[in-house]
Design a protein that fits this description.
The chain is mainly α and 53 residues long. The chain is built from 2 helices and no strands.
Length: 53
């Protein structure tokens, strides 16, 4: 397994949209944002269950 320095990885990540188009990054950001919001909502609201004892 080859170790890639952080600077080289960052440079490769910054140049990736030129090869893949600008829509790819937007799709990744939107999916991560939606999943993050869903997880945060579940985490915050899980304590508000009403128990009918």
């Amino acid at each position: 397994m080859e170790h890639i320095p952080a600077a080289a990885w960052f440079a490769a990540a910054a140049s990736a949209p030129q090869h893949q188009g600008s829509g790819y990054l937007l799709r990744v950001v939107l999916v991560v944002m939606i999943l993050g919001c869903a997880f945060a909502g579940w985490f915050l609201l899980r304590g508000y269950k009403r128990k009918d004892d």
